[in-house]
Amino acid sequence: QLNMAKKKEAFLKEFKEGPLQFKPTYKFDLYSDVYDTSEKKRKPAWTDRILWKVKNLTEAVSKEGEFPEEEHLVSVTLNNYVSHMSYGISDHKPVTGTFTLEMKPLVSEPLVVLSAEGEWSAEHDVLIRYSAVPEFPSSAWDWIGLFQVTFRHVNDYVTYAWVEDDEISSNKDSKQVYMSASEIPAMGGEFLLCYYSNNLQSIVGISEPFQV
Question: Which among 16, 45, 68, 136 is most buried, taking Cβ atoms within 10 Å?
Answer without folding.
Answer: 136
